[in-house]
Amino acid sequence: MSRYMRAAGTMMLVLVAATPAPGHHGWSQYDDSQTLTLVGVVREATFEHPHAVLRLEAAARVWTVILPPPPRAARLGLTARTLRAGQTVTVVAHPHRVTPDEVRALRLTVGETTISLR
Fold first, then answer.
1. Is the terminal CB of the chain with fewer CB neighbours within 10 Å at N or C?
2. Count of alpha carbons within 13 Å of 10, Cβ hemisphere only?
3. Quick count: other Cβ atoms within 10 Å of Cβ 77?
4. Distance between CA 113 and CA 93 in Å, rounded?
5. Residue 46: what pLDDT?
6. Residue burial 55-71, b: 16+ Cβ < 10 Å; e: rest
7. Percent of the chain with pLDDT strictly greater than 90
8. How far apart are CA 50 and CA 70, in angstroms?
């Protein structure tokens, strides 16, 4: 390998390392001093990276319920098969500090089953 090739390779590694990665949100966006209990109807549930998301119709609005990442949700007992459109579920969650219809789920109850998500 020539000296120029090594220098180019080193420069590429430095540039890749210096490039910011897409940011993932932190949980500080959610107000953990408040807890909401929402009882509503599942409109949609998606289990995709980076988080599973539930659209829940409750209290005259449609909430975006942020669930754990799909692999973690599955380890906790929550999979795509757990939630179906039209089901009634209860979600205990912290509200988002800025987005009024978004919450981070702490617990989810489907039928007789309660799943702790933390």
1. N
2. 7
3. 13
4. 17
5. 96
6. bbebeeeebebbbbebe
7. 76
8. 8
Assess contact for 54 and 40: CB atoms under 8 A.
no
Q: How far apart are the first and last CA of the chain?
A: 51
Regarding pTM above 0.70, the answer is yes
Strands 113-116 and 61-66, sheet pairing = unpaired
Closest to 85 (Cα-Cα) out of 57, 107, 51, 112: 57
Q: Given its phi and psi angles, is residue 96 left (phi above 0), alpha (psi -120 to 50 degrees) or beta?
A: beta
CB 107 within 8 A of CB 73: no
Q: Which two tokens stand for residue 53?
A: 């998301």
Place of tokens 């500090």: 97
Neighbouring-strand partners of residue 45:
54
